Amino acid sequence: MSDDITPSQERALLRLLDKVMEVMRDDRPLEPDDPAFGELESAAFFKLAEAGKTYTFRNNAFPDATVDLTTWTDPLDYSDDRTRVQAVPAYFNLWFQHPPAGINRRLLEQRLDLANYRVDADGRREEGNDLGHSVPPATLLHTYRYRANDGEHGRFPVDVEFFFLDALPNDLSSKVLLIKITIVRAYPYLTPAMRKKKREEQNQKKRQTYGYMNLCTDAPCPESGVWEGWTKDGPTDVMRFERGQKFDAVRTVSLEQGGSCPMVPGQWFWLCSINEETGTVWKGIALKG
After folding, report:
1. pTM of the prediction?
2. Is 1 part of any domain?
3. What is the full DSSP assignment across 142-198?
4. From what superkingdom does this record's organism come (predicted)?
5. Which of 81, 142, 262, 274 is most buried, by the most CB atoms less than 10 A from its CB?
6. Residue 171 maps to a domain
7. pLDDT tens digit string along 154-166?
8. Could you tell me the pLDDT band of residue 259, with boundaries at 50, 70 and 90?
9. Can you give the pLDDT at residue 289?
10. Of 185, 201, 229, which residue constitutes the final position of a domain?
11. Residues 160 and 258 in one domain
12. Count of beta carbons in the 10 Å neighbourhood of residue 20
């Protein structure tokens, strides 16, 4: 027979879930030493040569539970070089080795501010949260899936799943047990080719937006990146500028021709971000590397 959750354990559980939702949905900074998570046991890189890590904790309220939070490279950063992309929170997992009884699912729904619908892998909204029971032999495993409401400070869509073990039928001593909780940021799935397309669309949009601003020599640069310089005869120059730096004069002879040349006032257009500089080819020239 499993033990009922104690009042102190329930408070610790809600405190933990509150903190996870702040990080996942509200984009609060992840602080692995926050006592709400428990004691940090390890922090291992999730994928070789990328910034994401899996943080594993030991929570004294549930010493046998698996508590981990995984970060990975930001899917909304479309840079091709993933080694230069920052990590963002992505996946939280709480798995009870000795599942507690007496946890009210409705309390969890209210505390986490969960909607009465879910969103499938294709982004379609489906009413209801009950996914029913698993297939044999795990016929008592009962799954519930939710999309979290945005809340007052929400910045990211978040999906939540509860995994319960229903009570044995015809056994009055059997209780409903909480097996597992997962909380996931609903990032879009992007292949390298899809990221490339997004990157090109993003750069084209920025190029048009900044083009309307008529950013000429001596104007302050609005965003750090690689910019293309134009004279009245077309593009002749490319240069990296930091935000706030004044745009330079433009070469009168195309960079591809090399050598020194007179400089004249000109207009600057967005080309790509600094993260994309490596491997970018401009008029047949590899900008960096």
Report:
1. 0.79
2. no
3. EEEEEEBP-TTT--S-EEEEEEEEPPPTT-TT---EEEEEEEEE-PPP--HHHHHHH
4. Bacteria
5. 142
6. yes
7. 999 999 999 999 9
8. confident
9. 55
10. 185
11. no
12. 23
